[in-house]
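Dear Dr. V.,

Thank you for agreeing to look over these. As mentioned in my earlier message, I'm a first-year student in the group and I'm still getting used to reading structure tokens, so any feedback on how I've presented them would be very welcome. I ran two proteins. I've put each sequence directly above its structure. The first is here:
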Amino acid sequence: MAAGAATGAATGVATGVGVAGAAAAQPGAAAAPAVLTGMRTDREWQEFLSGQDLVWKRVPRAWYEGPFLGNGLLGSIVYQEPGAKALRFTVHHSEVQDHRPQFGHNWGVARLPVGNLRLRPVGTITGADLRLDLWNAEVSGTVTTDKGSIELRALVHNDRTLLLITARASAGERDFRWEFVPSPAVSPRIVRENPPAGMEPNPDPVTTREQDGTGVVVQSLVAGGQTATAYRERTLGDVRAYVLAVAHSHPGTDAEGRARSAVRKASALPVSSLVRTHREWWHRFYRKSFISVPDGMLQSFYWIQLYKLASAAREHAPVMATTGPWLEPTPWPAVWWNLNVQLEYWAVHGSNHLELDAVPRTLAEHTDTLIGALRPEYRADSAGVRRATDANCDTSGTVTIPGVSTTPEVGNLPWALHNVWLTYRHTMDRGVLEDVLYPLLRRAVNYYLHFLYEGEDGRLHLPTTHSPEYGNAPDCNYDLALLRWSCATLLQSIDLLGVRDDLATKWRDVLERLTDHPVDENGFMIGAGVPFAKSHRHYSHMLSVYPLYLVNWEQPEHRDLIERSLTHWIGFEGALRGYSFTGAASISAQMGRGDDARTYLRDLIARFVQPNTMYYEAGPVVETPLSAAQSLHDMLCQSWGDTIRIFPAVPRTWQDVTLHDFRTQGAFLISAVRRGGTTRWVRVHSLAGQPCRVRHSMTGRLTVAGVSGPAPAWRDLGDGVVELDLDRGAEAVMYPAGSRPDLRVAPVRVTEPAERWGLPELPQNGSITQVDLTAYYDNDGITTEMYYGDGDFDGAGRTYPMAQLPQTGQTTDQGIAFSFTNGSEGTKNNVVAAGQEIAVPQGAYTKLHVLGAGDTASVTVSAVLRYADGTTEAASFGLTHWLASGPESGETAAVTTRQIHTRTGPLDLKAAVFHQAIALDANRQLVAVTLTAPPGAARAHVFALSLKR
């Protein structure tokens, strides 16, 4: 914590001045630096975090637009109820799942929805002014209707797992009401396919109401157990307070009693007391570390991700499913282990938030399940995790067999254990090493050893295994990297633990004789004989570079290979997704290329991140934005190997950076400040007394000062690296000799301002007004490369490819900005002209700009323009066939793609969305546009409308 650090950095420091290759001089050779100050008060933190808050100036209409709340168990997102006059607060809980593993991860152990709480106003919702207050972890603001307004404050209580909402209504809205609507207890995979044959549906929920007004919904499960939701409203003067609790039990049926008790106890407390204890946890949480950069967009994005991480994760909560605690229609209703879990938790280390890390506990508690995941003949000495499971590592089937199974994906447990290794290295907690990592990694390697064989070349080889989502190959780079890392880590572990292991000789033999990574002229291949030859989002074939660092930029002989591999992989457009860009950013940071890393992160945000910083691939996928926080960590501080690297990849435009209590491997807390493009000081606080090497990023002679004691012994190793002898609890400060550093931790000045995350008023580009069409959408013309079955643009099941279209709600053509919806799987995203009258913001306009296309042929739409004076005017416009070679009706091709999707896969046909303009009478006030169906069989699809004054 900042305050603790300031207390520890007491006066009376002693210093030493060193030169390259020399030991430290005697204490007292230089003046003592001042006490560490800054970011110590609530006021400082509140002021800083309020600058990162998300703000909504209009009503969010989807989960990826709205404010979100959570505490690792209960999760809620706020947005307008689709098709209803209500505001939805989703209600989901990370423990709620089915318990029939025989039906697999998508159905049998899938997360199950709980329900939705609806705020039903008296009038029709006309607007919103909301704020997600990060410092206090609550949503507050006002919803307006045509009858009045309702002031709201909502939070998911950190300690009590309650949704707490207070509301104060104006006179016209005093009769608003709350309504909890339970959801069917069926896997959200239903969005894509029907349940498996023979899977009995869970029974309907049962709702009761008690005499004190408490409502209770009990959802029994076919597999036994139950989910219970209890809720109660009370009036406190002119404020109405609503509390809701969810509990889940299996196989027992105590969830109902626990939910009732939680609501009863909360209802007996003052709201102020609940708010106070909730805020206390969050205020302690934020103080554990601090990062500030001059890029306003990335700075706020980072702090929102820390809030999101703490909303989604706790050490003792279920390991995060791919959606986090928020569950929307999705084909991914379980926990995925071939990338998702690993990326979800990386940021807990540097941010000094180990209290959020559920991975070591999860693997330790479910070791028997990991052993049982293998076929019986391998269980005596091995373990593995299936690709996707529930939070208890359970599902149907067994881990696949190298060289035998269709998709033998076997490296996921070693990769998950790399996360455990990171936890050990950042804490130096012997228990993590001895009780979790060593025994499980030993079993994971044993599974590989069952199949490893000696080839004719005398080297050890792997039979065919699966590179996640790409395909199969012998000597698969994904598995070679993990096997090599695992053997080296086991040898290091037994040395650290001081134990003997009969398998040590075998591990050394593997390291000496394991075949080299297959490479070609383009860099790392998928495996032997299988080049990287198509667009692919995973960087699993480059795992040896990142995050394992077996092949790294500090090895000059590997630099060309790393550069070729990165360029070739990220250069394949088409199937790249969000975490492709976080991976590229982190690899670039390893290469010391801060400008490239920043570009990749900004590409991620521009192409994929949604207004509330959520991300989707068909459904909610939480790991990508969280992994972007880790990419920022990699730019500011790296600690792989035996060296801590300060500011290794800072972009040139980031002249000022503040880093405080950043946790590194070796269990050090690092603080450092960069001003005017120069590192001014670095503070190192040793938590475990481990060897300490620091590449400090300062030039010239260096002063090393002790804190609350003499200067430590230290050595300058050259190349900007010093070695410090720090005991457990000791601190040292380094700074350029002759300077008097200002040891102040403070936000840096934002030199690249950005709009707040959330939803601003509909953007206006000078004289351009964008029309909100979301309420009129009736067609899904866009699909992902992961599922081609949910959309149908042209009546034949063909669609635009999501990854090649604008992602984040806006696109521009010829200076005209359009709102654009590219939603998650099954989301409607365009209007088929069929006589709809579309209301527009009243105004005098000169042109109507249309973004659209004809489906089976080019079309002409006869529009009707209605003005405020009651008059109407006919207007027509043409929209070219989406697969035409070019515009046919005077439009421009505003958006183009290189492929289309069919029900059976991608097709190499170019497609476009066209931009058409229609002249209007600027002497009259336009209020509505009617889109008439064109003659013939072809339909007109309108994706967006904008008006020019």
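The second protein is here, in the same arrangement:
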Amino acid sequence: MLVSTNWLSTYVDWNELSVEELAEKITRAGIEVDGIINRSLGMEHVVIGYVAECEKHPEADKLHICQVDVGGEVTQIICGAPNIAAGQKVIVARPGAVLPGGMKIKKAKLRGEESNGMICSLQELGIEGKVVPKAYAEGIYVLPNDVHAGDNALTHLGLYDQVLEFDLTPNRSDALSMLGVAYEVGAILSKDIKVPAITYESSSEKAEDYLQLTVEAPAENPMYVAKVVKNVKVAESPQWLQNTLMSAGIRPHNNIVDITNYVLMEYGQPLHAFDYDRLETKEIVVRQALDGEQIITLDQTERTLNGHNLVITNGIEPVALAGVMGGANSEVHEGTSTVVIESAYFSPGSVRQTSKEVGLRSDASTRFEKGVDPNRVADAAERAAQLMAELAGGEVLEGSVVFDELDKTSERIILSPDYVNNRLGMKIPMDEMKSIMDRLQIPTEAINGQLVMDIPTRRQDLRIKEDMIEEIARLYGYDEIPKTLPVVESAPGGLTSYQAKRRVVRRFLEAAGLSQALTYSLASPKDAQAYALETAPVTELLMPMSEERSILRQSVIPHLLDAATYNVARRNESVALYETGSVFLGIERDGLPKEVEHVAAVITGKWVNHAWQGETKKVDFFVMKGIVEGVFDQLGLFEHVDFTKATIDGMHPGRTATVWLGDTAVGMIGQVHPTVQKERDLQETYVMEMNLRVILETEAEELFYASVPRFPSIARDIALVVTSETSAAALEKIIRQAGGKLLKNVQLFDLYEGKNVEDGKKSLAFSLTYFDPERTLTDDEVVAVHSKVLDALTVQANAQLRS
């Protein structure tokens, strides 16, 4: 919102302050002033000139030699503007002037002809091109004939002005109007507000005899006011009106359109002017659009509508998009003689939806979306009628054509001073609170020690007690709130046990060579339950952005595979990623999804690639298994981990295992099924996913440290022939149970299948280490324990020693 301080001064007297002081006070009261724009920018020696003569330059087709009267002196100026002509009043920068951008004006010679200054466009005076009237957008600005050569052009253009640039929060829709800003400044400075008086003479003819109004959608349009003005003369607006609009960032068009824009900025109430004759039916019908119905808006764009869009029609076809923009078919033009002024209240939701669906946002839609003042709808129409009578010679027909089912009652809030002071930690007297409400022009009575406030409808943001506490605090002064430290028990910050363990897991995975990935928690129906450790009814979004992101995931693996596929497709063939994130398993009793944290990883390509040493190693099952074992080792849970063969959809049937923590299945690891790898154009790819919550909530055994052993250990190697289905883990478990306390370590070091081993069987070789920390073991003791181990293997696993 751009606020011209010159325009503001017509409503409230703030001139006892500097502009900088005013901006500081407004900011301290809660509306941030982003900047102050000085429109004159220190310019001098810019005057009004009269082009007495204009001839073509003999040496340049696009230049003209102009003899310009600058007030008692005629000087020669060379001008290249295409619209320069004799008899014009123009803006002249004399030699010595400095224009925006640092341009210094000096006497010069152009193609051999002397030039004593420059005839200026508005852009050269620092006015943005987008607000310059279209007629002068590509050339110099031509002033009206009633100005005098030699006068100060900056004064005539209203450029001795400073503009405040507001950064408004969404709730302060009242400050989207000059009157709203005036009320705010008046409250800050304790000044009265001068609301413009609306007086004009009406015609004997009545508006209702010219126009019939029907509102078929009262919920979206509870109030509609139409006034009719005859015999208007469409022309350029007077200079003061053009200056005012340009200071607010609005391009002038003609007097009728400019008046509606002026009232929009003054009252915050959007208006629209229809050409009465172009309506043809002399009827206005407000209704929902038909599906597929089309309208060409004022920006000359054809837009296709649907049944959610509210339109203004002539009873046959749309002539405006309600609250957004008018239609080209009813636009005011040079030949317009009768105007219909529309002022209405459109529901914020309806305008917001239409604006979004048609991809069009305007000054009008911005205000309607935030909510306009119900009690200014009719006043704004009257103000526009008054200005059309004054500035366009119009004849205002008596009365208005009105549909009105709008609730305009004030909100009443009752507030206890003790309640206010308790919330603010202050001791503001009740009289001071009432004084603040009076400054805000909020009718307030003190009844039985309570403040009873009737909130004006112009303040749509004041709804509850806390809103009023904020009003009192900001106008009393936030600086007056005492600075105190809260009296609370302090506690040192730190990670919970769960958070600390999760950090250990992440750091280990990163140290192992995996990079952390962050993927979507939303999945497609196809991937929602793929690779899930535990399935449950899926949770679908009510309003998904797309089908690919419509369901809360139950596994992290599908998205990690997507990430691996993305990288491999871009020639990053070795990928190692992990993620800790939530999966969602059905709905709990409180209506929210059950959220469980998992850790997952994907590796593909080469695990070791030392090209300069000639050493490479592809990823395999045991790389992933080693990573998983490392995680448990870091958490002190390695002794409780086990792996058993598993069959899981989407995984290789012979290279997949369930991960057990004690008696609880906590995850799975394995190779992605070859068909999935082929679909994704991946090499051998291995994944793992585990229930991180269960793992981290499992308490590790207390860690004990022992001294370096003084006594030697004794190793025995055994090669066992077993069936192909027998797992090494099962044999290791039997060995450890039978070995007792003297068996300190068991290590698998060989797997053999082939020659000298029967079909359907395999050979597994283990190294067993026996040790007693208090003495040296004898051969007889080791033989006894070792024999016990062999017997157990024979009985429990039908294992045979391989000779």
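From my reading of the second output: The first helix runs from residue 5 to 8. DSSP finds 20 helices and 44 strands in the chain. Does that match how you would interpret it?

Kind regards,
E.
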